[in-house]
Write a structure and sequence with these properties.
Layout lengths: L7 E4 L2 E7 L4 E5 L4 E4 L5 E4 L17 H8 L3 E2 L1 H9 L4 H13 L3 E4 L2 E4 L2 H29 L8 H11 L7 H5 L6 H10 L10 H5 L19 E2 L5 E5 L8 E6 L2 E7 L10 H9 L3 E2 L4 E2 L6 H5 L7 E10 L5 E11 L1 E5 H5 L7 H17 L10 E6 L2 E6 L4 H23 L6 E3 L13 H10 L4 E3 L23 H14 L7 H36 L4 E10 L2 E6 L4 E6 L9 E10 L4 E6 L1
Helix pairs in contact: 2-3, 5-7, 9-16, 12-13
């Protein structure tokens, strides 16, 4: 390649003038620096003469598309291209022509061989480049806004990407990387809060866990035409918290005989039907402070809920207690019942009246037997949490005797159903719990209750009967909530098959259902727990000056665990050496971290 002195050359995509010739070339760059390079390191653009690469003169307007159209399918050289586009081959037009080639939109190649692209291809490429340029502009604008702690409507695609990480739907995000955030759901959540795209009203935990948040989309059949015992003449009471929406149990007293009526879910949800499979996949109804996602199709509640119609279908359990509080004379029958709905507060004022006085006496007798058998009784704080329009309401549940009455009746019927199944060799989802070695099974202080609860073994479901340690029972099964717990529904399906002379499930089928339901229910319980913690933090956001009292339940200096009764919340707080367990300490809120569900307190 013959390169004259004072010619215009290309060196590393930049302009240069050849200042001197030799085995190597002395070149002058646009910034004034001088270099010595090999001839093969440069490309000749124009033979010159050029005084300086910075003084090329004006570049005339060119006919780029016309030249591209004229050359389509053919080749030319850089000098010819400069003449064709700009009407002359000068150092300035040579540089302009090379930039067209280097840009690659209309032309491609080398100074000796330039190819023209078809105009249709040029149009497609231009559209793609414009889109990329717009995307770069949008990306840079978003990053600028995000670093300033705000966002705009056009940032929706980037915010969605962050949301997907925050909800556990993806693991990596270029947005988080560009903003120097960790690639995890917690950091994504914090960023969305910082950008004010999310606030406390967004509860990400159920979706992050993968919990189903839509009701089952299956239909239920008509109630079967079958004999039912008419118990409508026996007053029955569904006793619940105010505002309960799915009443599934009611109680009656017929002389000395206790009747517990349970919503007859198994009459509509038969084994291995679509509704049964859907319930098995869910494990339980999901109760969130802001909403409820039912385990069964939504039509199940109005059709089966006790007291929602004038007369309700039920599976009724009749039983007696002997003088020692032992469950005897168990009978189970499909029935019609007429149920009156009452709140715990309403019943509390009527406990000295029949039938509630008689019901309460039965509950006391049964509880006394369980207490003698080593049952564990604790009185840890409980609250009712609700969220409406983003506002969090937390109310402590009072310790009412009416609650004990209902709870004990449900324990009685669980024991009765288990004994009924055992007596008939019926495979059943029994509930068991290993006994705990505790000297004090009825602790008085919160600290002792807290320690005892931590030592309790988890309950287990099994196709084999076994003792339930904390209830003080030799055998037990949960059967009172078939509308909202799948294994309760399975128990009802087994009982109905036994009553109607059908084919109950064998033990292996019960084992399979226990495994599937428990796996699903674990996710439900976790979603409920994390959601309650989330909304408790939102409650603190809504009460930034919160002050209250906590009870020290565990001491591990320098911090201790305090239980805040009015919120049923545990917190780690720095306490003094002289603060003893069960001491009441004044607390004040000092801050929260919503993504981690942590609240910080100081004593005082």
């Amino acid at each position: 390649m013959n390169i004259p002195q004072n010619s215009l050359v290309l060196y590393k995509n930049g302009l240069a003038r050849v200042a001197a010739l030799g085995d190597k070339l002395d070149i002058e760059l646009e910034d004034g620096r001088s270099l010595r390079v090999r001839p093969k390191d440069v490309l000749l653009l124009h033979p010159g003469p050029v005084r300086s690469p910075r003084e090329l003169g004006e570049i005339p307007a060119g006919e780029v598309e016309a030249a591209c159209d004229l050359l389509e399918g053919g080749q030319t050289t850089l000098p010819e291209l400069a003449d064709l586009v700009y009407g002359a081959y000068t150092p300035a037009t040579a540089w302009a022509a090379w930039r067209l080639v280097n840009e690659g939109l209309y032309f491609q190649g080398t100074p000796e061989a330039v190819s023209a692209r078809p105009l249709a291809e040029v149009a497609r490429e231009r559209t793609a480049r414009e889109a990329k340029a717009a995307e770069r502009e949008a990306w840079n604008g978003f990053l600028q806004r995000a670093r300033a702690g705000c966002c705009a409507p056009e940032d929706a695609p980037y915010l969605q990407e962050i949301e997907e990480v925050a909800l556990g739907q993806r693991e990596q995000s270029r947005v988080l990387q560009a903003l120097d955030c960790d690639q995890d759901s917690q950091s994504a959540h914090a960023l969305l809060l910082r950008l004010r795209h999310w606030d406390g009203k967004v509860n990400p935990w159920p979706r992050r866990i993968g919990t189903l948040l839509t009701p089952p989309g299956v239909d239920l059949p008509a109630l079967p035409d079958e004999p039912r015992r008419d118990l409508t003449g026996l007053p029955a009471y569904a006793i619940d918290d105010e505002g309960n929406l799915d009443p599934d149990d009611a109680i009656s007293l017929d002389g000395n005989r206790l009747w517990v009526h349970i919503a007859d879910a198994a009459a509509l949800v038969l084994t291995d039907t679509p509704a049964d499979l859907e319930a098995r996949a869910r494990g339980a109804t999901l109760y969130l402070p802001e909403t409820t996602i039912p385990m069964l199709p939504e039509e199940a509640i109005p059709r089966l809920g006790l007291g929602l119609a004038e007369v309700s279908p039920a599976l009724s359990f009749g039983l007696n207690l002997d003088p020692d509080g032992v469950v005897t004379d168990v009978e189970i029958t499909p029935s019609w019942v007429r149920v009156r709905r009452l709140s715990y507060d309403e019943v509390e004022t009527q406990l000295e009246e029949e039938p509630f006085r008689g019901l309460y006496e039965l509950a006391e007798r049964h509880q006394a037997r369980r207490r003698a058998n080593g049952a564990i009784f604790m009185d840890l704080p409980e609250v009712k949490m609700r969220v409406s329009n983003g506002r969090v309401d937390i109310r402590p549940l009072p310790r009412l005797r009416s609650r004990m009455l209902v709870t004990e009746a449900m324990v009685m019927v669980g024991e009765a159903a288990a004994r009924y199944a055992l007596a008939r060799g019926l495979s059943f989802p029994f509930t068991t719990q290993d006994p705990v070695d505790a000297a004090d099974r009825q602790p008085a202080g919160l600290a002792a209750m807290y320690a005892l609860r931590r030592n309790l073994r988890p309950r287990q479901y099994s196709s084999l009967p076994g003792p339930h340690g904390s209830l003080g029972l030799d055998v037990y099964a949960q059967v009172t909530s078939p509308l909202r717990r799948y294994l309760d529904l399975v128990a009802h399906q087994q009982l109905r098959a036994c009553l109607r002379g059908g084919d109950p499930l064998e033990s292996q089928a019960i084992i399979e259902r226990v495994g599937a339901a428990e796996a699903a229910a674990i996710g439900v319980r976790r979603a409920e727990r994390l959601s309650r913690e989330h909304w408790t933090m939102v409650y603190f956001q809504q009460h930034p000056g919160w002050r209250g009292q906590g009870v020290l339940v565990e001491k591990r200096l320098p911090r201790g665990t305090v239980l805040i009764p009015e919120l049923a919340l545990e917190a780690r707080v720095k306490v003094g050496d002289d603060v003893a367990p069960d001491s009441v300490v004044p607390l004040r809120l000092t801050g929260i971290e919503l993504p981690t569900r942590e609240a910080y307190f100081k004593v005082g």
